[in-house]
Amino acid sequence: MPTLRVADSPAALPRDAWNRLLAASPRPTPFMRHEYLQALHDSGSATAETGWQPMFLSLWDEDRLLAACPAYLKGHSYGEYVFDWAWADAYRRHGLAYYPKLLVAVPFTPVPGSRLLAVDDAARALLAQALRALAKDSSASSLHVLFGDAQDQAALAQAGCMARHGVQFHWTADGDADFPAFLARLQRDKRKKIQQEQRRVREAGVQFEAREGAAITTDDWDFFHRCYQQTYREHHSTPYLSRDFFARMAADMPEHWAMFTALQGGERIAASLIALDPARRAAFGRYWGAVEHIPNLHFDACYYQPLAWCIEHGYQRFEGGAQGEHKMARGLMPTPTASSHWLAHPAFAEAVNEFLAREGDAMAGYLGELNEHAPYKAKDAASAASS
């Protein structure tokens, strides 16, 4: 009979066994690697002290790992990108506690992918059921599994969870030989806008350097983190990720990163960082920052430089991150996402289920409307929408 275990640190789970489950999952990403989750914990970025109490759930057949997921007991909703603040406020107005809640997610990382790692569908189903039991045993108001894959969603629906739908903006390759060929497929006004933005950046004397993997030096990481902190300061917020986290990424997962540094007069003024999945030829826009303000620099550093790099290196997908209709004008198309939710309170569960049904209908209409305004020429729009 399989047994369940709850761990207060990723370190309690065997790295190699976890990563084997991930590699065999329907939609693996670098962010679900054991090294990534361990770095979040060991760097102090995602710990009980920051409101992310690890409760990693695993299923075992003696010493064989059958299934596992990164679960956290949370006292807030920061760093998630599937917004439930209104639900928490409704609980508060009715004199009920919404927190703690049980969350299955990669902290601060709204990248769709497998969340319930399992050797087969049966183990995944047992893990989904165990998550509901863990939520009850932890006196959590609810269970939330964010940005899971289709198999995760099916197992969680069978376990009584409700589905919530969202949208992100992703680029997929269409045989472009280079960045100018990609631009040529865009509608004239979109193409001209990008060319104008890049020209203004060049007229400001800005050039870019791209480095990947071990070629990214400690000095590069130091400058990038300075830029990253500056972005949060400008938004009167506190960075989620510490410098130590990025040091661990450089040491443990160097092959999964590329950095674009903007220079003006030979001096560094901005940097953007993307994550890489070399095996699946996928890239993920993550972080950026600047120490000097240059109009349009953000678009060049975060979209045009990474897209040009992806095309040059034969990457097939670039995910631009959460939210942002403006990404469509840069060639990124709307892509559905989903999360799964269970609420212990019957009346609130019913109310949320009704809300999600209405929200789902609205989201379907929104996606249809977005696809009608694809940035590509008519002959390319259909293939881009279906990618």
TrEMBL record:
Coiled coil: none
Protein name listed in UniProt: GNAT family N-acetyltransferase
SUPFAM superfamilies linked to this entry: Acyl-CoA N-acyltransferases (Nat)
Organism: Pelomonas nitida
InterPro entries: Acyl_CoA_acyltransferase, FemAB-like
Domain of life: Bacteria
A Pfam short name: FemAB_like
